[in-house]
Each structure stands twice: as structure tokens, then as C-alpha cells.
Amino acid sequence: MLQRTLVREYYRQNVAFYLFLLLFCFGFMSGQEHRQLITVIMARPALLIFVGLAWFFHVLKSALFVHQTLQEQEYAFLQDNSILPFKHKWTSLLALQLNLNLPFALYAAAMMTLGLMNQNYISVALVISVNLVLLFAPVIWLNRRFLNFNKEIGITKYFKFQFIPKHRIFYFVRFLLNEKWVLYVSMKIYSVFFIVAAARLFPTDEYDFRLLGLGVFLGSVGLFPLGVEKINFESQKLGFERNLPFDQASKFTSIVLEAFVLIIPEIILIAYNWFDKVSLFQLAGAILYLLAALTFWYCIQYSSFASRKDFNSKMFFVAVFQFLLVMFKVPLLLSAIIILTLSGFIVRRNYYNFELLQSDDK
């Protein structure tokens, strides 16, 4: 039951992320290069700290997804998992956690295999230990989460973020922090990780400024779920706005300002980590690109294209194309202007014709 609901929905929502990860890891690195990389890591156990952090963030990402999903009314039937026989319940939870993190578990298995072949027994023991912790700790949490299925869990139980202004451009961020804080935190962890990690890798070669582009691009890809949540929020809470005398320019300006509010933490991090590393032109381009990307994720949901079954796969190819533009040193500022222009066109053409279908709400 858990595999057919949570696991299937998790990979459906994150298909673009994993396809891009496969392209990035296996399209630009050969099998021999992966083998050499694993050999170096296993020969130097200290490097496993960085690998462990990557695994931890992935486990956190999947755990946050489960927590958020179980808050949806349509998944209320899953609380029956808590009354299953002991053996069946824990087996299903173990299978759920293993399947949610299967891509990284398979890579860990490859690391252990090469480690044993090269007699790196300490590193193998560390990999096994870390993966056991990252398997059983979430399972224990999952069991508690199912036992407390209908209880409010989290920081919003104690704090409702009432200090946030009540202006229109803050409606969505207030909603996220009060009702969808898990989604908000997971998206911030994802984008911040790539922005900071890219800065820490600087410098590497004569094309160092591309690291900023890659960090911002990968961070922007992770903001995609916010676009889906935004359109659901508008349809459920603010549907009356389309009956008000707002022109399309005002609506688009409001969307851009809402996106700006949400990426303020990323803007601060970009400025702090990259100010002394790249030119002001490149810095401004990176900030505007992140703003344009989130604006696009908002606006594309107004089009009928977003309801098509092949939407995620099409967006994957768009992401690959944008990745190639970054690698070929196309200025981020130019890409940002094009994306903002396209977003404005989408709003102008689709806003008053948009209607959220029941299938889109999934």
C-alpha cells in the first residue's frame, strides 16, 4: 500500500530531478571516471563526510515529502498502517524507506563493492554504518509519524509567523510557513546547498564563473514544486481575484514580487558567498535568473500545458537545454530576461482562461 501511494507519488513529483541527476552523473562522467572517483573516496575516509552529508540531505528530502503528503486529506487512509501486525508494519516501513532512497543506496552498494576489492575495510565499515543509520532512524520516525497521524506536528504547532506583513505579496509565503513549512524548508535546503557548495568549489579552472551559474540553475530546478503549490493556493484561497478589476500587468508584477519575497534568503547567500568572486554583472545576472526561474514556475501553471501528462518530461528537456546554455557561458542575465518575457506572455495569454482541473491538484 505504501509503495503504490507514497513511493509512486514521490518519484512522479521528482522525476525531473532524478532524470537530470542521471544525466549529470552518467552523461558527463564515464563508468571509468565513477570508478576512479569511488576509489579515491574509499581510500580517504575523511572524504566520506561529504558523501554522508549528501545522503543525509536526500533522506531529509524524502522524509519531508512523506510528512507533507500525510497531511493531505486524500492520504488519510494510510493511517491504517499503524494497526497492522508488528512484523508487517515494520517490513512495510523498511521497504518504504529503502525505495525512497534507492538511487543513493545503489551507489552506496557500488562504493562498498569497490572498497572490498581494494581492501578499504575502514571505509566500507563507515559506509555500512552510515547507511544503516540513515535507514533505521527514518523508519523509527515514520512509525511515530503514523502513530500520531492526526496530530499537528512541527514548529507551526507553537508559532504561526504572525509577524509577516498581511500585504498581498506576502499571502503565499505566510501560507507556506503556516501550512506547508515542510515544503518551504526542504526547498530552501535544496537551493541553499547548491549555491553554497558552488561557492566552496571556487576556483577550479578558467571558467570559474560557470560554477555560479550551475549553483543557481540547480537551485532554481528545486523550486519547481513551489509553482504547483502556488497555483493550488490561488485556486483554493484567491480564486475571487479574477473577478476583480486587475489588469494583467499588475498581476504579473504581483507574481514577480511574490517570487522576490520567497528568494530573499537565496539573494543574501548569493551576495555573501559570491560578491568577491565574480563581477557585479554576473552577480546581478544570477539573482535575476533565480527570480525569473521561480516566476516562470509560477506562470507556467496557468497554461493548459501544465495539465498534460508529459509536462514533467518536457520540463526536463527544457532544464537540460538551460544547463547547456550555462555550460556554454551564455550570460545568466540574458537567460533571465528571456524567461521573464516568456512568463509575462504566458500570464497575458492564459490568466483569465485558466481553470484548475481536479487532476492538477494531485
Automatic annotation (TrEMBL):
Keyword match Membrane: yes
Name assigned to this protein: ABC transporter permease
UniProt entry keywords in alphabetical sequence: Membrane, Transmembrane, Transmembrane helix
Species for this entry: Jiulongibacter sediminis
Top-level taxon of the source organism: Bacteria
Lineage: Bacteria, Pseudomonadati, Bacteroidota, Cytophagia, Cytophagales
Membrane-crossing segments per the record: 15-31, 37-57, 93-115, 121-142, 181-203, 209-228, 249-274, 280-300, 321-347
Keyword presence, Transmembrane helix: yes
